[in-house]
Design goal:
α1 packs across α5 (856-879) and α4 packs across α5. The longest helix has 24 residues, at 856-879. The chain is built from five helices and 64 strands. By secondary structure, it is mainly beta. An eight-stranded antiparallel beta sheet has the order 45-55-56-62-58-59-63-64, covered by helices on one side. A hairpin with a 2-residue loop joins β6 and β7.
Length: 887
């Protein structure tokens, strides 16, 4: 008699609620990630495959270089082996046990229809065996045991072949009239994609019984299969934007399970399976990069393991029963556009080691012995087990600390690679050892838009122990002798070429930097620093929360109400006034016990002090002309610094850009630029608006054909991609200093501005690209002044003729402000300010669970989820066991 077990509905309900709580938000897997391809050789490291503790990949030349080399890395031993050399084009390796199968397309193969061959490499003996004859477009080998399968176009269509006992005896696995691609093999089972019926479907062939099974049967495209035991995974085109989803075989064709269900708006590719884990790459919803994701099929839990990666092209996974852990490899693009191979291990023994070393070379001529000392950092729980030294002359060592005799003079690149079972890290020092003649090098600061007569610091970075430094400044002067790190200033504007010759007892070397220093006419170089003692920022729920200690900032007020804090920063901050706004109900909250004010920041308004350029000509407005500006931002710029550089006229490149902006905005003429304002932002958020107040010599303005109506401000966006013309509003005339004062609004924020004289009825606020002729945005068309467009935050004061105490200052860092004061805690404040209110939107795991349990809508979702899960549970109990296409 069949026994029936009936669970209590209440029990099922609570069990399902508990299960739901574990899958609401996927947690990042607790594992270790490391870069495997630590060598930089100008090649892309791609198409990795892993079996147990061994990784293979191909180093491929970009374009038509014809370079393809196969490499092997043993995780346990830390050894990297070059399997093939660059005399032929080898690619797409597969690995199983001690054997590697790969494609070899000979020397400089045809890029369109290469004739290639499959080779088998024995890792233990280093023996190489050809296992196929040459065929057109033969590629993508997969290996299991002594069996190798691949795709092959020798008969006209692509077919899947399997190796025989010798080359020429390979045979098709299951010939069809369709095209077959991307085979995978496990035991006696071979899977591939086949377009026999139009769209691609997944097929399975048993090598023992010769039975063929069609695994999928629906109109979608099914490609890129992987197999482990009796489980097959693949990607299939979905109905939303053609995005691929990841599937695993079901009980019958058409009954497969979607492992990426609910993410139809994301593209999922490159699935691989081993044990209970399926791994793939999927596009993320923010920037189009890839997330590497695992589905643990034993729990149907999706786990992100490597978020936000660029250009992922392949994944591979291997489960090690002996070590009871999973290893996953993939390739991704680095910032230089080259692919690199990464390894993830689902175990986290501690921080990975970071390679470092020193040597005792103190100069000399070859032959010479140099001692190298490992200084790598490592944790006790994850220590280094292997060292590999490359001395740069073809020699190497595997000792922790080692020595090497260099037999020839020269500059040598030395690298140290450290590794263990979880991590690999390398450091390379160019010209780490320079034997004989030194190698010259130097840096300087500042180098661009330097105001004349400003001291420039030059720093010698030469290697090889020079004893003499001869500097040539490019202005007809030089400094010779033993001054290693001099300073130098230039009296006249222009571009200057600097040379350094270094020498010692073995010879000399010279480096020349052409047009290295650009000097401009007199002006200002002012710094305004937003780091203010008494302001602490917190970030609960993704919002910016202010804690304002009003005992540290004496000059403050609520203006006009508690929704706005107005204060005057210390004079060395170089800000005239700062206003911080909140939309919290009731405004900012005052906590007298803490002498603090707190609230969520909604907007910030910053006004700089007057900036008075030094050395301006009288015709432009010197010595009294001045400027200031205000910036409106959505958040407070923590550790923000504004560097304002002002110079008379414009550099050659800026003048050309200003002319381009005027012409493309339909102005009929340009009568020069009086002065340039360059605002360099550090740690400032993107966006925001700016308003500038500036003055000019009134006689200069009156000499223009259109007078004050000819004064405009041209803006070059950060990065130099866009430009626009800003109208000006005349404010007033100062008869004592003979200055006209103007105001302009910059809706796209601060950057580089030119105070220019333009003629004609041009377009204002129209962004034009500075690389192509198309105009991308027009906000306002007209000519003349700005008019009366309102400024949400009007400046407290317009510029005056008063000269500040110092017109040139340097960046300041407020003492007493520590990193801990900017953390998400209330540390440092006695009787801590109450935590800021949580936003309405739920943004954390705890918030989701609370929402489910504490709100009516949450209860509805819980009940609906519980009912759905209960029905699914009953269905699964009735279905019996999973479909096994292998019997």
């Amino acid at each position: 008699m069949k026994k029936t077990v009936t669970e209590s509905p209440l029990t099922i309900f609570f069990l399902l609620i508990l299960a739901t709580s574990f899958v609401v938000v996927p947690a990042i897997a607790n594992g270790t990630e490391t870069l495997i391809t630590t060598r930089t050789n100008g090649l892309a490291h791609e198409a990795p495959r892993i079996y147990d503790d061994q990784i293979v990949w191909g180093d491929q030349g970009l374009g038509s270089s014809g370079i393809g080399v196969i490499y092997l890395y043993n995780i346990t031993s830390g050894n990297e082996t070059e399997i093939t050399d660059n005399t032929t084009y080898a690619k797409h390796p597969g690995i199983y046990g001690n054997f590697i199968a790969y494609t070899d397309c000979g020397v400089h193969p045809s890029p369109f229809s290469p004739v290639c061959t499959i080779y088998l490499y024995d890792i233990a003996s280093a023996a190489r065996t050809r296992i196929s004859t040459g065929a057109r477009l033969l590629d993508f080998p997969a290996i299991y045991g002594n069996r190798v399968v691949w795709q092959d176009k020798r008969t006209g269509n692509f077919q899947i072949y399997i190796n025989g006992t010798s080359p020429g005896l390979e045979t098709p696995v299951n010939s069809t009239s369709g095209n077959q691609f991307f085979p995978a093999i496990y035991g006696d089972s071979v899977v591939w994609q086949d377009n026999l019926k139009g769209n691609n479907d997944i097929y399975l062939f048993n090598l023992t019984s010769s039975q063929v099974t069609q695994v999928t049967d629906n109109p979608d495209d099914h490609i890129s299969p992987g197999i482990s035991k009796n489980r097959i995974v693949w990607q299939a085109a979905g109905t939303v934007g053609g995005n691929y989803q990841i599937f695993i075989n079901g009980t019958t064709p058409g009954q497969e399970s979607n492992l990426s269900a609910g993410e139809e708006d994301l593209n999922h590719q490159y699935p691989s399976i081993s044990g209970d884990w399926v791994v793939w790459a999927q596009t993320n919803s923010t920037d189009g990069n890839n997330d590497i994701v695992v589905n643990d099929t034993s729990t149907n839990r999706q786990i992100p393991i490597a978020p936000d990666r660029a250009g992922v092209d392949a994944t591979s996974i291997s489960f090690s029963p002996a070590e009871s852990l999973y290893r996953i490899v993939w390739d991704e693009l680095d910032t230089s556009g080259y692919e690199n191979v990464y390894l993830y291990t689902n175990s986290s023994p501690g921080a990975c080691p970071v390679a470092g070393f020193t040597n005792d070379f103190a100069g000399g001529s070859a032959p010479i012995n140099v001692n190298f000392t490992d200084t790598s950092s490592q944790s006790l729980s994850n220590p280094i087990t292997h060292w590999f030294w490359d001395f740069g002359d073809g020699s190497n060592s595997t000792l922790e600390n080692t020595s090497h005799i260099y037999s020839a003079n020269g500059a040598y690149v030395v690298s140290l690679t450290v590794s263990n079972a979880y991590c690999r890290n390398a450091t390379t020092v160019s010209s780490s050892v320079v034997i004989g003649t030194p190698v010259a090098n130097f840096t300087a600061s500042p180098t661009y838009d330097v105001i004349n007569n400003t001291a420039i610091a030059f720093n010698d970075t030469s290697i090889g122990n020079p004893t003499q430094w001869n500097w040539s400044w490019g202005d007809g002067t030089w400094t010779n002798g033993t001054i290693q790190n001099p300073t130098h200033s230039y009296a006249s504007p222009g571009s200057y070429t600097v040379s350094l010759t270094v020498s010692n007892a073995y010879g000399s070397d010279t480096i020349t930097r052409t047009n290295y220093i650009t000097v401009i006419a007199a002006g200002a170089n002012a710094f305004a620093n937003a780091t203010i003692h008494g302001i602490t920022l917190q970030y609960p729920h993704g919002l910016q929360y202010l804690v304002f200690n009003y005992t540290n900032i004496a000059n403050w007020t609520f203006n006009p109400n508690t929704s706005v804090i107005d204060f005057t920063p210390p004079p060395d901050r170089e800000f005239y006034n700062i206003s911080i706004y909140t939309t919290d109900t009731g405004g900012f909250k005052v906590f007298p016990g803490n002498t603090t004010i707190a609230g969520t920041i909604s907007n910030v308004h910053l006004e700089t002090q007057d900036i008075v350029p030094n050395g301006f000509s009288v015709s432009t407005g010197g010595p009294f002309c001045s400027l200031n500006y205000s910036i409106d931002l959505p958040t407070y710029p923590l550790n923000g610094v504004l560097n304002t550089q002002v110079w008379e006229g414009a550099t050659t490149s800026d003048a050309a850009t200003f002319s381009t902006i005027a012409v493309r905005n339909k102005f009929s003429g340009m009568n020069g630029t009086a002065y340039t304002i360059k605002i360099i932002k550090t740690n400032f958020p993107a966006g925001g608006t700016a308003r500038l107040h500036l003055s000019l010599n009134a006689s200069l303005v009156a000499s223009r054909p259109l007078g004050r109506n000819e004064v405009f401000v041209e803006r070059i966006a950060d990065g130099g991609l866009y430009g626009e013309v800003l109208g000006t509003k005349y404010l007033y005339h100062n008869s004592t200093e003979n200055l006209d004062y103007f105001e302009t609004e910059s809706p796209h924020g601060s950057s580089t501005f030119g105070v220019s004289f333009l003629e004609g009825a041009g377009n204002l606020f129209q962004l034009i690209t500075l690389t192509i002729s198309s105009q991308v945005q027009q906000r306002y068309a007209g000519s003349g002044s700005l008019g009366t467009n309102p400024d949400t935050y009007a400046p407290t004061a317009v510029p005056t003729a008063a000269v500040p105490q110092a017109t040139i200052s340097s960046p300041q860092t407020e003492t007493g402000q520590t990193a801990g004061q900017n953390s998400n805690t209330n540390s440092g404040f006695p009787n801590a300010v109450p935590a800021p209110p949580a936003p309405t939107a739920v943004s954390t795991f705890v918030g989701i669970i609370g929402w489910l349990s504490d709100t009516v809508t949450g209860h509805i979702y819980l009940v609906a989820g519980a009912v759905t899960a209960a029905v699914a549970l009953l269905y699964v109990r009735q279905r019996g066991r999973r479909f096994d296409p292998l019997g």
